[in-house]
Amino acid sequence: MDREALDRTLTRLAHEILERNKGASNIAIVGIRTRGEYLAKRIARKIEEIENVKLNIGSLDITLYRDDLLGKLEQPQFRGTDILFDVTGKDIILIDDVLYTGRTIRSALDELIDLGRPRSIQLAVLVDRGHRELPIKADYVGKNVSTSIAESIRVHLKEVDDEDEILLMDVEEGS
Amino acid sequence: MPLSNRHLLGLEGMPAEDIQLVLDTAASFREVLDRPIKKVPTLQGKTIVNLFLENSTRTRLSFELAERRLSADVLGFVSSGSSISKGESLKDTARNIEAMKIDMVVMRHHASGAAHYLSTVIESNVINAGDGGHEHPTQALLDLYTIREKFKRIKGLRVCIVGDVLHSRVARSNIHGLLTMGAVVSVCGPATMIPREVERLGVQVFNHIDDVIPRADVLNVLRVQLERDAGRFFPSLREYHNYYGITNKRLEKSPNPVTIMHPGPINRDVELSSDVADSEHSVILQQVLNGVAVRMAVLYLLGTRN
Amino acid sequence: MNVLLKGGRLIDPATGRDEVIDLYIRDERIERLSASISADKGMEVMDLKGKIVAPGFLDMHVHLREPGFEHKETVATGCAAAAAGGFTAVCCMPNTNPAIDDVSVVRFIRDRAATALGGLVDVHPIAAVTIGRKGEHLAPIAELSETGVVAFTDDGDPVQDAEIMRRSLEYAAMFNKPIIQHAQDLPMTKGGAMNEGFMSTTLGLPGMPSAAEDVMISRDILLSEYTGGQYHVAHMSTARAVDLVRDARKRGLRVTCEVTPHHFTLTDEAVRGYDTNTKMNPPLRTRQDVDAMKEGLRDGTIDVIATDHAPHSHDEKQVEFQSAPFGIVGLETAIGLTITGLVQTGVLTLAQVIDKLSTNPRRILHLPAIRIVEGEKANLTIFDASAEWMVDPTKFQSKSKNTPFTSYRLTGKPFAVINHGKVFRT
Question: Best residue in B34, B125, B304, B305 to probe A by mutation, most A CBs within 10 Å?
Fold first, then answer.
């Protein structure tokens, strides 16, 4: 997927979110760090333009809730969670770049629920590549890409990488 | 990038990048302390022993809080010090800890070098919560954090450590940490309580507090040990207070504002007057709060290090 | 015994001899001393090519720990360590339990020594100055002198009280015995674990200032002068102390002193890492002090090298630094450290080393000089001054292995000792 295609997809997701929640009055956008955070900000901006409102936007660092901290070779960098509004009662739109095993989302759910009691949590992902290991489902999907475990999906965003693009690679290449 | 050492025994020789990592991680943990559920599951399943073989309520509670907030299982071993008379018990205690497959040990001990010794006889990670007169690294880290929080930097700040530097592990850890992070460090106290050749560490030595106050951005005021020192190192508490006590009157003599820190517990109206301790110049309460965040950061960085 | 020592280099400071020569020893005596002795049937030949033959070494500061602390060392194991280290005689210190403040203890130790290695190593007891080494009442100095005690000290502790020191110097002088002082002002060093200085500041350990040793030596020299008594400084460690003794000698006073090999080898930097095998009393001092020790040895101010061999069991030393007992073993590394640290560096010649390890201690203790001439009893130390070896405490004869020199590469190794008709090979 290239830059224009990515942008159109985000616009579509923004509309779908508004449609299902019947407007933006009770939603809050939370992006999962790191790339989910930038996608969240872009989607939030689109929603704000469409509806002419100001949204609550937050970033979630799931490092402390990971189930694989001890097995990792490289200690993940912990940036911290930044949610300055109360999640209780809100419809939280959780946003991440790639949905794969579902474990990241499981951690995010645990953390969000430790922060309060949202009315609902809905999941929006840019790419769903299958191979779930937990019963997790995305409510809004940018693109379904069937992959094998030997492949990997790379999402590059202008904010951190040089380009906006989504790449499908073999695992050895990009490791 | 993990910390370079799998133990935290002291700040002497700890690289600036490691200190930076702890402070940055602590900043992220501050947010957890403001949540309604102040708990994260990060160290779930890890067992931590708090081996406090020397009296300390506040440091022990601070560590316990940090450990519980990270969902670790906590065991406390507290001794007033007199029943464990000789070091042989430390070795046996260490062996028992190992046999029980403890992940981390946080130890406070009255003998300098005790934490270092423990790290050579057990496999678990060791965090030094104060060993004799040698080091108290987490205290210095939270002091550094507090300074950075207030001033947005450490480099170039003029920090003076005031009081019984000779016996103080807080002073030594702070000296190492502050110098590594680029602060300008001095010590001030009676000549009897300044350790020999301390200038060789890179600090300036003052004996008169009024010389220091106009030249400092931060005063880190140490506790005077009532029982041990009066009579031998200085004549009386009265003389100490009159000559070295930080009071508002003293602070007013200088045009620039001075931030006051203290590791606690304060001997009110000995080294610090009540009005200064409670004034807006004091960051003593922030130090306490920051202590939990800093300790969480240290526990997290060592506990998840591979 | 019927031994031919062939081709060894005899260095005998007493006669000024330094030559390759053969010695034939029969039973306890030197039967013949000649350039080339041919081996007869029945003679055991020891090839000493490349080795040095010297008058037997005496270590005048050794803790044999018996009676009372046999888990650290016994007279038997201590004598074995001495022989392995190249010593034919030691003086044992009185901080045993009970202290050597009574003739019964002296006799006990001498009996033990007679059966150790068949009596090869002479043990000359040093008795306490005060009863129980408490520093209050004089010990029975006259009676002890008659049983072969060679000197008096409260070592482990100083004689803190100046009055007691004065009286002991006066009294012991009557029997021509020296008072040996462990110089340490106790109030100044309360709780101390290492030298007071930059290292103690960095390590956060309570320090023992060098001044605490110096004030006592200074005081005692004045008392020696006042009383005319014979005074010997045990294990001297500070530069200032060397100056004080040098000055006392210039003024003709009866003041002598000794230094341990660790005090001319290691500085307080060695304490970094809190290895309890770097904890001893007096503590390791600074580079300036170590240099002053070497200079003092060189110019003759320091008369004796003595090890202060202080064995402690593994468990006792395996504790945190502040709680550990003071002391390290030294008998089996003495020659190596001396050759490596003093001869190889040009501070002392081999003849001077032999003076420090044999001639001088015997003179100070009023023991007869060893004469290496035909007809005299053979009392010899044989060592290889160029042999390189690595220190391995598991091979020590001593019961205890508390040394900071593990894995050190040293030059100079004891080879054998001969005394009372017996040989011990290291």
Answer: B304
